[in-house]
What we know:
It holds the Pfam family NADHdh. By secondary structure, this protein is an all-alpha fold. It has a domain at 72-330. Helix content is 62%, strand content 2%. It contains 14 helices and 4 strands. The chain has helices at residues 17-49, 65-75, 86-102, 133-154, 158-189, 194-199, 206-209, 211-224, 236-239, 249-274, 295-317, 323-353, 358-392, 434-460; strands spanning 116-118, 121-123, 406-407, 423-424. The strands form 2 sheets. Strands 1-2 form a two-stranded antiparallel sheet. A hairpin with a 2-residue loop joins β1 and β2 (121-123). The model is unreliable at 395-403 (pLDDT under 50).
Amino acid sequence: MVLAQEPDLSMFGDDPFWLIVIKAVACFAFLMICVLISIVMERKVLGWMQLRIGPNRHGPWGMLQSLADGVKLMLKEDIIVKGADKALYVLAPILAAIPAFMAIAVIPFGPKDDPVSIFGTRTVLQLTDLPVALLYVLATSAIAVYGTVLAGWASNSTYPLLGGVRATAQIISYEVAMGLSFAAVFLYSGSMSTSAIVEAQDDRWFMILLPVSFLIYMVSMVGEAHRPPFDMPESEGDLVGGYLTEYSSIKFAFFMLSEYIHTVTVSALMVTLFLGGWRAPAPLSLWEGANTGWWPLLWFTAKLVCVIFFFMWIRASLPRVRYDQFMALGWKILIPIALVWLMLVATVRAMQNEDYDFQDIVLWVSGGVLTILLLSFVADFFRDRSERRHEEAGGAGEPGAEGTQEPFDPTAGGYPVPPLPGQTLPPVPRRPSRTHREKAAAGAAAESEGHTQGREGSDDA
């Protein structure tokens, strides 16, 4: 097997200007319609899963609820915080929303070799494509971080600043795992072009060929889009609304719009990279005309709706995790697994390019996996022995151990602060449990009975 050649992108860039404008407006309209559908769909799905009534007032069956929400937000009073940096305060929602629109430009809705006719002109169902299209997607998602962190900083308030910092750390950490999952797709398809990646899934979707990358991206896209159970940047119980606490009216609507557009964008990326893109699912793929004309747009939209439904499903099913658990999942689990999987995929591709037999590839890969598991087992074994010896020694000799930790007053400076390494918080007074109260009452009764018997004995004497 030889390495894939550079994809042919000569069919892009030859459209007349009016057709480019029509396709750009169509992509924008597609995103906005998906957002409107997602808002109503989320409330309907959550109502169905949680056995309660969803929206049923605005429009038939509540279908105009998202439109009513948009009108309500536009008519609300627009407030600018007195101490805010006004220029950055206004710019932040725009920076959060615009990059979310940009990624849809390289998503293919149909095959590049079978253009459709729009007003008598043959064109591809894709706005444009690049040899490094997925790097362009990663770049646009990275720009959205500026909108989040500037919203928290420009508000000149404590809680939005904390929300902006948490959101920035979350986006950066999960972008690393997402990029590593992309790298495995690059290696297997031989291209970073989105149209070439879809063409490489002719025989089998990458969800089946690269299951680990698929699972890593599935978790990373939820964290990247700030969706439950990973919605810590705006968690109401912790941060009173997060980085958008001080925003209202249309600025608040921009942040909500960017979140839903980002959800649609990462869902479209999942369809493109792992679910065959515009290709018809089996058994519809057996029909020769399934992937011609306008039919691919229907298959792409159906897959996109299924992925968006997955977002609603996990919101209704899973509780919000703690922030430290969420960051540990990204840095300690997803990224190491993605690195090991990427090395495995690179090894398999290199052996395929060198014309190794399938049995030899399986033997070498299995041997490598067993070696890694054995080394991990040995490391865990010695680490457990070291921890056991440390516990038997009473924890002396290491800073931060129980025997050397210092008492710590979290409110000594006027504001509560977390402890540093080597410091411990004072014990929290807790209300005694019922069992403890019963034992204390029984002890008091026995003690009073003993005193009574003692007095009776002294009276008899």
